[in-house]
Amino acid sequence: MPDAPVSPLTNTTLDAIAKDLRGASRVLVLTHAKPDGDATGSSLAIARSLNRLRAGCATCWYFGPNPNWIRDIADGTPFQLFEPPATAPSMEEFDRILVTDTSSVKQLEPMMDALREVRDLVSVVDHHVQGDESVGAKRFVEVSAAAVCQPIAALCSKVLGCEISALPPQVAEACYLGLATDTGWFRHSNVNRSVMALAGELLDAGANHVRLYTTIEQRETPGRLRLISKALATIDLRLKDRLAFLHLTLEDMRAAGAMPGETGGLTDFTQTLSSTVVSALITEVPPEQRGADASRPLVKISLRSKSEPVGVDVNAVAQSMGGGGHVRAAGAKMHGTIDDAKREIERLVARQLA
User: Fold this and answer.
1) What are the structural domains of the chain?
2) Is the pTM of this model over 0.90?
3) Mean pLDDT by 10 residues, the chain (354 residues)
4) CA–CA separation, 282 and 318 (whole Å)
5) How many other CB atoms are there within 10 angstroms of residue 131's CB atom?
């Protein structure tokens, strides 16, 4: 499906979105399945802002696999968790629906049937240029943002009528979560002056960065550590060591005793190799998450690239495989085996390196 028409996130459009949300009596906030820090933070921030105006008017739905920290982070905000293979119930009780951090049908698959029924009520705030028309009637995108929590922080300030540095601490902390995690805790190449300036404003507003880091990054389970060990044992270097593969089978997940949401961040390990330009993690998808064709093998692909010394656009690689994301971080799903995925990724990366 072609990209949905995109409106820029200017002061005027932010004012319009804020006015629309403030006038709603029941707001549902959604984000992509398997939510990360930016997805969770952006949705919580706007829900908390609206609930400051009218208690309980906004709620968040999250479709898993959900991270093991999500209950702690969402505490105090109305939310509901759905785990695979659950699909969204009717959304007809809501008079406005906001989707953050995606407008991809694939990333919203568990919600799409319900969303199509209320499409005219749906607005999207995102920082990914790729999107699908069927997700919502309005789509606002700030592609220069390192995290969607950058425009969401501005939207929250519009909703509450205050400066970002005066946002309520819970709102500021949710925005800081997205900003920090989508920049790799301020290590990635998407960090710039505006990112650091916003981080400072959110800290001024009361975001507790130490608590966030401890909650998100320092709560590994034994299963997660065993999973890391199994993934590192599969390291496969190709293209003169510039492409690094890791993979996890369903048996690896079972043997490690790990949960589906515990595979994040594994590409960070191969990114530490001095020779590596692109890192790829390939994970087998269980039959119950493959949709109608459960008997056909399906793998999930997570791609990361360095900006130096040779930049590879992994978004372009992922798009060629039916996915998308950012220049330095992207993902896709592909029917086939792990070896099938490796061959296709190697072909596409080699083309760019050439």
Assistant:
1) 7-216 (3.90.1640.10), 222-353 (3.10.310.30)
2) no
3) 61 92 97 96 98 97 93 95 94 97 93 95 90 86 94 97 98 98 92 97 98 92 93 97 96 89 88 94 89 84 84 91 88 94 96 90
4) 13
5) 24
